[in-house]
């Protein structure tokens, strides 16, 4: 105790002279520079940025926060109460997806009101954030904003789905902060979109897409301007026009003010109101303007591609890595020409013709007979497509039926003997797949093929066109994607990296979920997998398949040995072993047993799911499944 008191009251030692050393300058590494970090992060996908990079530190989060955009979904079928409750949530969202399907007056009135309220709320939020303190002496405004983790983002992207006869450019007040605008019309009558109004309301617009699903195409208007009246160029970088009517002189005038343009896609342009395009003149105009494109495509509805313009097209787009091909144009000569003039391909899009009104009795006629086969053969054999990342194409079931098992589901169908070894797509690293499926088919063949051949998928969109009627004899029969247990939807759950999934059957009268029960889909959520009641129901359901399985086994045993492919890579050995049961119910049964036993975690990365006719917005998988099942109970 004495020693403690002495130490407590002991006088402090006299200060000694110390030398003050200047702080040493810290040498910044490249990872300390925001510009370099931003460039590095631009090569990463959204999932890595959100799940890994943003959690490292506050600085990395702030650098990437502009890439995190919240999507707000608006449906004009909402009631007044729903609009009042949900519309305020639009504030702070970076992307808006809007469905306008009500009567024209109602649709116009409601969307104008919602966007008008958003503009007011946005301005109020800006005023609150721009807090200023006025110095009484100098009357200087001081901005007190500081960077925070919760950045307030303006609305920068809107996608409109319009099923009523209205023009967005003349009726909807578009926010001036937009950098991306998509106008998807399902039909077009006497209305037309005015692009001059669009660029006047949206001076920051970098991406514009105008598309019409049905024929005839939508007219576009443009007020020609002189260079003196437009001193600053437009920031437009991407222009996509599909099934629209746009005069070539107006297009060339617009291109004169878009020196930053990098993507120009003119798909199935309508010549009903305008004469045929002179593509050589358009390419020469691009050359005179000095515009070098990364992606370029043009076609007219009903006209085949102009192979003679291919050399000039390559001059305007020397480093092309993106193919867009109209199904009507897919011929061996075109594919050969593209293959010769392309050294590296990352994106391939094959789109079908717009829907004629009235719809033809059969949409799967001669137009869709050869093009899907040619594209399928190219995907299986061309080394050019090995590094493909994005694929949008048309599929017919006979091309992915590797072992001719389609006839197992039609007792009257003759046996089809295979004379050549089956082949599968070479693009194993594909990340985005948008598929338009035609003709009647068992869903589990499609699901099984995708799950085994494309294990790296992150984005999957499956669509069956609403007018697809494969049979003249039975026009009331429409194909559809089966969501029942035997349909094999569970096979897709093997995709470990899948983040977004859309299943759109297209025809409203034959929805895929009309006969669905809880046990068919609730295995997606943990409660649906863990409850013994649902596991038992799935077990009972699988026991009813024994008769069909027995018939399939008999037909398998009666068939001659099949030619097998020559497997050059070890990785393909495992894929082919997994594909042995494709088209058989045993393939589905094995997946269900793995899920219910806990051996397979279904959709481990899936964040967004849509099972609705319109791919409008996404919901969490368990929420979407419950809403889908409730609709049919």
How is this fold's topology laid out?
Elements: H1 2-9, H2 34-41, H3 46-51, H4 58-64, E1 71-75, H5 80-86, E2 95-100, H6 104-129, E3 132-134, E4 141-143, E5 157-162, H7 168-171, E6 180-185, E7 193-194, H8 195-201, E8 207-212, E9 218-221, E10 238-242, E11 244-245, H9 248-255, E12 263-269, H10 279-289, E13 295-300, H11 310-316, E14 322-326, H12 332-340, E15 347-351, H13 371-381, E16 390-395, E17 432-437, H14 443-453, E18 459-463, E19 500-504, H15 518-521, H16 526-530, H17 532-543, H18 546-558, H19 570-578, H20 585-597, E20 608-610, H21 621-631
Parallel strand pairs: 1-2, 2-5, 5-6, 6-8, 7-9, 8-10, 9-11, 10-12, 12-13, 14-15, 15-16, 16-17, 17-18, 18-19, 19-20
Antiparallel strand pairs: 3-4
Helix pairs in contact: 10-11
Task: Provide the descriptors you would attach to this structure in a database record.
633 residues, alpha/beta, Monooxygenase
- SS strand fraction: 15-25%
Q: What's the arrangement of strands in the largest beta sheet?
A: 1-2-5-6-8-10-12-13
Number of helices: 21
Radius of gyration based on Cα positions: 29 Å
N→C terminal distance: 82 Å
Largest sheet: 8 strands, parallel
Mean pLDDT across the residues is 78
> Which class of secondary structure composition applies to the elements?
alpha/beta
Q: Give a count of the beta strands, DSSP E runs of length 2 or more.
A: 20
């Amino acid at each position: 105790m004495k020693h403690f008191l002495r130490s407590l009251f002991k006088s402090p030692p006299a200060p000694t002279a110390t030398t003050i050393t200047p702080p040493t300058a810290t040498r910044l590494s490249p990872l300390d520079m925001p510009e370099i970090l931003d460039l590095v992060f631009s090569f990463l996908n959204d999932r890595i940025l959100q799940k890994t990079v943003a959690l490292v530190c506050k600085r990395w989060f702030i650098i990437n926060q502009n890439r995190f955009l919240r999507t707000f979904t608006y449906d004009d079928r909402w009631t007044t109460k729903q609009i009042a409750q949900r519309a305020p949530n639009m504030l702070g969202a970076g992307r808006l997806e809007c469905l306008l399907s009500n009567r024209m007056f109602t649709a116009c009135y409601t969307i104008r009101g919602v966007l008008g309220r958003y503009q007011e709320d946005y301005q109020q939020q800006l005023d609150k954030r721009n807090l200023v303190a006025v110095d009484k002496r100098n009357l200087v405004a001081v901005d007190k904003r500081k960077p925070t983790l919760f950045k307030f983002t303006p609305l920068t992207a809107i996608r409109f789905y319009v099923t009523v006869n209205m023009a967005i450019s003349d009726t909807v007040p578009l926010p001036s902060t937009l950098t991306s605008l998509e106008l998807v019309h399902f039909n077009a009558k006497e209305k037309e979109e005015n692009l001059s109004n669009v660029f006047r309301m949206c001076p920051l617009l970098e991406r514009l897409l105008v598309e019409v699903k049905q024929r005839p195409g939508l007219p576009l208007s443009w007020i020609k301007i002189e260079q003196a009246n437009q001193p600053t160029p437009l920031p437009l970088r991407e222009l996509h026009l599909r099934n629209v009517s746009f005069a070539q002189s107006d297009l060339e005038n617009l291109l004169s003010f878009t020196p930053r343009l990098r993507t120009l896609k003119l798909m199935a342009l309508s010549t009903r109101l305008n004469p045929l395009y002179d593509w050589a003149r358009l390419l020469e105009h691009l050359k005179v303007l000095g515009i070098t494109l990364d992606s370029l495509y043009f076609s007219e509805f009903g006209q085949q591609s102009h192979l003679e313009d291919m050399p000039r097209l390559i001059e305007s787009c020397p480093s092309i890595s993106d193919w867009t091909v109209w199904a009507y144009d897919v011929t061996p000569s075109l594919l050969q020409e593209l293959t010769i003039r392309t050294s590296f391909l990352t994106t391939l899009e094959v789109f079908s013709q717009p829907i004629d009104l009235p719809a033809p009795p059969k949409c799967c006629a001669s137009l869709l007979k050869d093009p899907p086969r040619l594209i399928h053969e190219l995907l299986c054999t061309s080394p050019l497509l090995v590094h493909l990342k994005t694929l949008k194409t048309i599929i017919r079931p006979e091309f992915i039926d590797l072992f001719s098992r389609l006839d197992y589901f039609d007792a009257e169908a003759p046996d089809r003997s295979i004379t050549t070894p089956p082949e599968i797509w070479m693009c194993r690293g594909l990340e985005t797949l948008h598929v338009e499926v035609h003709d009647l088919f068992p869903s589990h063949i499609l699901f099984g093929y995708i799950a085994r051949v494309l294990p790296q998928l992150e984005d999957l969109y499956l669509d069956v066109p609403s007018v697809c009627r494969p049979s003249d004899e039975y026009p009331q029969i429409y194909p559809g994607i089966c969501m029942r247990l035997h349909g094999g939807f569970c096979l897709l759950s093997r995709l470990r990296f899948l983040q977004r999934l859309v299943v759109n059957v297209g025809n409203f009268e034959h929805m895929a979920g009309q006969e669905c029960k809880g046990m068919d889909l609730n295995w997606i959520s943990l409660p649906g997998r863990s409850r013994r009641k649902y596991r038992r129901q799935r077990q009972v359901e699988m026991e009813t398949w024994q008769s069909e399985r027995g018939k399939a086994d008999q037909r398998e045993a009666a068939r001659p040995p099949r030619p097998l492919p020559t497997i050059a890579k070890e990785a393909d050995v495992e894929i082919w072993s997994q594909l042995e049961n494709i088209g058989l119910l045993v393939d589905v049964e094995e997946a269900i047993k793995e899920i219910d036993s806990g051996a397979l975690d279904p959709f481990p990365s899936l964040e967004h799911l849509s099972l609705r006719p319109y791919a409008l917005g996404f919901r969490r998988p368990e929420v979407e499944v419950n809403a889908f099942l409730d609709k049919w109970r």
